[in-house]
Amino acid sequence: MAYRVEINGEVRELDVPQDMPLLWALRNELGMVGTKFGCGMGLCGACTVHVDGVAQRSCSTSVSSLAGKKVTTIEALAESPVGRALQQAWVDEDVMQCGYCQAGQLMNASALLARNPKPSSSQIESAMAGNICRCACYTRIHDAIAQVAEKGTANV
Amino acid sequence: MSESMTLSRRTLLKAGALAGGGLMLTATMPMIARAATAAGADEATLSAYVSIAADNTVTIVGKNPEIGQGIKTMLPMLIADEMDADWDQVRITQADFDPQKYGFQFAGGSFATPMNWMPMRQVGAAAREMLLAAAAQRWGVPAASLRTDKGKVLDASGRSLTYGDLAADAATMAVPDPAKVTLKDPKDFHIIGRSISGVDSPRIVRGEPIFGVDTQLPGMKYAAYERAPTFGARLVSADLDAVKALPGIDDAFILKGDNPEHVVDGVAIIASNWWTANKAREKLAVQWDTGEYAGHSTAGYDARAAQLLAGAPQSELGKEGDVEAAFASAAKTIESDYAYPFLAHAAMEPMNCTALAHQDGRIELWAPTQNPQSGAQGIAQHLGIGQDKIAIHITRMGGGFGRRLTNDYMVQSAAIAAKVPGTPVQLIWSREDDLRSDFYRPAGWHRMRAAIGADGKLAGLDNHFVTFAKGGRVPMEASMTADEFPAKFVDNVRLGQSTIETRVPTGALRAPRSNALSFVYQSFLDEVAHAMGKDLPVLMLELLGDREDFPAVQGFGGMNPGFSPARARGVIEKAMAMSNWAGASPDGRAKGFGFYYSHLGYFAEVVEASLGSRNAIEVHSVWAAGDVGSHIINPFGALNQVEGSIIDGLGQAVELAVEIENGGARPGNFHEYQIPRMPMTPAIQVEFVTTDNAPTGMGEPALPPVIPALTNALFKLTGKRVRKLPIDVSQFA
Q: What does pTM read for this prediction?
């Protein structure tokens, strides 16, 4: 069955099984591989996207549940000032080691700052607790978010 | 601490075959002769590593696989600095697997820094000399009258030419002998020592395809692979028709193999998307012959280890002095049993590989591998083809930690692709596949005994080590040697060994052997120190004495330059100062200490911890002092490795274990294998002690000492000694 889903501002037609997760539709049907597979059970956060601006696990979100909703992926993160500021902070702070989880970290961090532009340190920790970084770059992820929260997005 | 074996034996043998019979950490001459490269049409190729475009862009090849250790940034920094390039004009490309051109291409053992510090600098210096020669010819002056400055050649009058201006001429100059090039005075380094962000990071934050699993080829199909839940099981039959009849399934077929490092029996399912292929496994009925190891379990291994420890060791691995006499005349003896579990690697990017069997018999792979040579050898052996028929593109990897030193997933993908010539196939493992089909850090057991003499000094140390064997042979990652510290620093030392036969696959996990032995030895020495009424760092300094150097300990290929007590003392004293070791901790907290020498790096670490509600362990601060030589090449990358290693080690101590059940591994997904998350991150302070030694690697040596530093802190806090990992907090109740 064909589903119409708005992804990064463009309506895409997906002729996929009803229960196919968004993650695999993005990666294998649309060739948008920025969103990463980590666990398939919503446990690690590597596949985080925004659905109507809220961070959601694309491995556990079926394509058929997305009618009328707006999906944003890492490929469109730079379209928001917060997204651009986070991308810049990630590079400036040399946040990553392997980098595989970072698309999910960035999508979760940008959703956090969208709803709470000035999170406290413990709010950052609890908001990001669902995203595993196996390389354990947590200090830098935390500090990059705090830096964007402090400086704002005026310069990006 | 006499840790010198950093790779599994099989990896070493494979690497040795490449390196011509021996793996040498001494600087080998780089092969920099100009060869056909991937340089663009407007680029002039100076060597296998360096090309320069007319617009001054310098393209440098990163030869080694990037797993997050930062090598794709760090090795080109060495070249760029010696060629006096302007880093802002440098672009890095990843080398394909090409040992003829690049020599040893490998990510493991923290080898890349010591092996490449000099050769990569020579590559850069050679390029600089070619640019100087080109300018000298252009201006008709001696090259010795010229100098370089960040992408330019200048003469005494101030005339200058950019590297882009000179590139075409420089490419026609003779390639200098790397042994004879002039290297920079380190005071002139302007890239080495600078914090430089990862060269791939801008692409990663935009979500661009860069990892192995991001590979996309025209007409590509996806494969899932079903294998037995029991190690060593053989496939009896599989109902392929039921799977082939499912919507969206292109094909399903059986692969046969009994080499876990290559292929084990299983069923490959092919579809146009991976989710459909993987989901079809639910409908796949396979009959397995589970074999004689189906009853194996962690509980069974623990029971067998207890039996073995109660008896005499099956073999003696080494002895110095007279241990029996030391115990007979001891004023005090201590005996404790230590144990640690199997661990998984759990790299974030699940195992995967993309392969295309060309119609002419060549196999082309896009492989996330730490060890492409071993992958090529495995594929050649399994498929019965020559290695010259195998081409490997090395992709960036979402973590390695040693898992991707073993290339079973590569061989599987080649074997699957070989069944569908002309169609590229991407094999992806689920997280469950990853956790249940790993090459695990082996569990181990130690009965430690210490004799303290009438003079209050450590007089003897005895260890009965119980480990695993396969076909009677102990694999490298499950082995230890009799010169483990404090051997050589104590007169009477003995190591006995007993083994348990297993089929559980084992392999190198970040800081192999050291990640377990550090816990056992530094915890037990903390017990000894406590019995003597002193602190572990004080005992360590006493044991080390005032010796400046130490003869090379047992190691392979002469690669181990020996253990330096002076360097060990340097980091121990630094960590004591940084952590205010002698000072009191805030109420309810305590500090613990650990030191370890592994992978040529010296690290002393102090952990300050407390117990929260339900005795949950809270680590507040970690102070780490490291000595990895004269230069921290990229402080960004170095600090990232130390911080990551510390959190990795704390996670292992507090939480992680792979249980073996019914001959297979139990963890299904991350809910059963709890990787550390942001809220448990402590404050981490890192300082490097620089010494006049060639720089060494950062991927591993900061991990081992943090585990005993934590368990020793918990002893100080509670009086309860942690002798088994992961830590069972119920003992603190």
A: 0.95
